[in-house]
Amino acid sequence: MPVVLIVDDSEVDRRLVGGLLPKDLEWLVEFADNGREALDKMRLSLPDVVITDMLMPEMDGMELVSNIRMDYPHIPVILITSHGNETLAVEALEKGATSYVPKQFLADKLQETVEQVLALSKADRSYSRLIGCLENTQYSFALDNDPALIPPLVDLLQQMLAGMRCCDATGRMHAGIALEEALLNAVLAGNLEMNREEVLEARNLLRQGAVSPLVRQRATAPPYAGRVARVKADISPDHAVFVIRDEGPGFDVSQVPDRHDPDTLEQFAGRGLVLMKNFMDEVTFNEVGNEVTMVMRCKAGGELVPPRAVPSAF
Predict the structure, then answer these.
(1) What's the structural domain count of the chain?
(2) Of the candidates 212, 202, 207, 174, which has an alpha carbon nearest to the alpha carbon of residue 25?
(3) DSSP secondary-structure letter at 73?
(4) Which domain holds residue 146?
């Protein structure tokens, strides 16, 4: 039974957010008025995920994120952003928040976001001792256009990051979300050339364990059939480099949002790119827009560790 802690100084908003969680699943929902009360509750019983507003008395969302990152790094934090606090939200993502949902999109996207971070958090906690014996690892995959292949691949790469001690639990969840967004974009928008509405529908069905009829249709029809998403990963204690390339027509890379740009948080379109840019130290695209390279530099004590050498390509 997932335990969700909702933190907001408005009782109406707390109940609204709690009411948006799925009724057909067994969720235990707890509430706190502010960050200080949330931490008091967490000392007694740890939730699986925290959903928090940004502006609150006594302890705001920013300070709450920092405290959770320090004391409970394995617990994901989802921000509820509203117009006017986008700059604070960008800073909170840098300090350790795992994801965000603009307030106007809560009804459509909150459940998906909670389920995404819970799945990545759960996957991050398994079989890390054996992987800890590794000193370096490289992977190369050619994925067909089955979105069901993406979660286990993200799980594997997260475990490699854990074994290499490249980042803490929050950093691994950040990497998992960035990878999932990049891979879904490569398969759905890239290889299968689905538009934004079609991608959203396919993602919603995938979350329910179903496959979009359009995905099935295009996976066997020209010019989409036979396309693959190529994934390369180079992970060591110094750095992690992920290169993801699809065989679609690409997109206009001039539309990629700037890192740390608070204006992008109010627009749900491009949310995956926003998360990728904020959760990785470097994100670059080729000129065509069908290949992305994401670099994570390993951290010790919160500071970036200069890598021996971070390859830009394989």
Answers:
(1) 2
(2) 207
(3) T
(4) 131-304
Count of helix runs (H) and strand runs (E) in the chain = 11, 12
Q: Which of 123, 146, 174 is the last residue of a domain?
A: 123
pLDDT of residue 312: 46
What is the CATH classification number for the domain harbouring 111? 3.40.50.2300
pTM over 0.85: no
292 and 234 part of one domain: yes
φ, ψ dihedrals at 159, nearest 5°: -65, -35
For 247, other C-beta atoms within 10 Å of its C-beta total 17
The band of 259, judged by pLDDT with boundaries at 50, 70 and 90, is: low
Q: Assign residue 283 the CATH number of its domain.
A: 3.30.565.10
Residue with tokens 């390509």: 313
Q: How far apart are CA 176 and CA 162, in angstroms?
A: 11
Residues 6+ apart with CB under 8 A from 70: none
311 occurs within a structural domain = no
Burial of 282 (0-12, 13-18, 19+ CB in 10 A): middle
Same domain, 156 and 290: yes
Higher pLDDT, 22 or 200: 200
In this structure, the answer to whether residues 178 and 46 fall within a common structural domain is no
What pLDDT is stored for residue 301 in this prediction? Answer: 42
From CA 158, how far away is CA 180, in angstroms rounded? 11
Please compute the mean of the pLDDT values over residues 292-303 and round it to a whole number: 74
